[in-house]
Amino acid sequence: DEIEALSSIYGEDWCVVDEDEKIYCIKINDCLDQPKWTLCLQVMLPPGYPTAEPPIYQLNAPWLRGQDYTELANSLEEIYLQNLGESILYLWVEKIREVLIEKAQSSEPEPDIKKTSEEVDEDDGDDFLLEYQHIQEDPIKMLNYITSESRQEDEELPSIHHGNPITDRRSTFQAHLAPVVTPRQVKRVLEKLYENKKIASATHNIYAYR
User: Fold this and answer.
1) Does the keyword Cytoplasm apply (predicted)?
2) Residue 186: which domain range?
3) Same domain, 97 and 168
């Protein structure tokens, strides 16, 4: 019922990525005639949603990284904790829209999305590689989504291994690998990667985990 309602409300902005796996994507903008701020929210609904598990989600926007990403992710998690056991996708979408409208109405400059992964200069070389600090292998803290109100920094950031960049016809490709055991760690790894401006502004970021 929730999916049918969202599809009806958001129309063409709502997209079914994989109906069997319950993966959906919605394009959200600041509601202006000529939107300045746009973001895509991708969600996967686990079997326990909404009564026992939250959606697994990814926020995709070339300008969204660092503190902006962390603050928005924290806002979505707060909404989940305040509405345990209830359907929350509509609340998430409208919270994101609220943030985009605030950005559009503020004095913040328009997002710089001109340079994409297809436009990376071939002489960029090694500075495409991320700088990261080795994390000591302490025991992983498992997260109880239902009762825990711990922030994402409580979850250990796994070590990230970076492949060598490969450039072919002005497109640059690079793989990154990290050992993860919880969905929260997947988010932490993605957030760490998106701190790199070239990854954050790429138009074809792809990730998978098991």
Assistant:
1) yes
2) 156-209
3) no
pTM for this prediction: 0.52
93 in the same domain as 21: yes
What's the structural domain count of the chain? 2
Q: Does residue 180 sit within a domain? A: yes
Task: Specify whether the CB–CB gap between 83 and 91 falls below 8 A.
Answer: yes
In a domain, 71, yes or no: yes
Long-range contacts of the stretch 36-45 (C-beta < 8 A, 24+): 36/103, 36/104, 36/110, 36/111, 37/61, 37/63, 37/100, 37/103, 37/104, 37/111, 38/100, 39/64, 39/96, 39/100, 41/92, 41/93, 41/96, 42/17, 43/89, 43/92
pLDDT tens per residue, the chain (210 residues)? 889 898 888 888 888 888 888 899 999 988 766 778 888 999 999 988 988 888 899 898 888 878 888 889 899 989 998 998 899 999 999 999 898 888 888 766 666 554 444 444 444 433 333 333 333 333 233 333 333 434 444 568 889 999 888 888 877 888 999 999 888 888 889 888 888 887 877 767 888 888
Whether 1 and 100 share a structural domain: yes
| Sequence-separated (6 or more) residues with CB below 8 Å from residue 12 | none
Best CA proximity match to 189, nearest among 149, 161, 151, 148: 161
Residue 140 within a domain: no
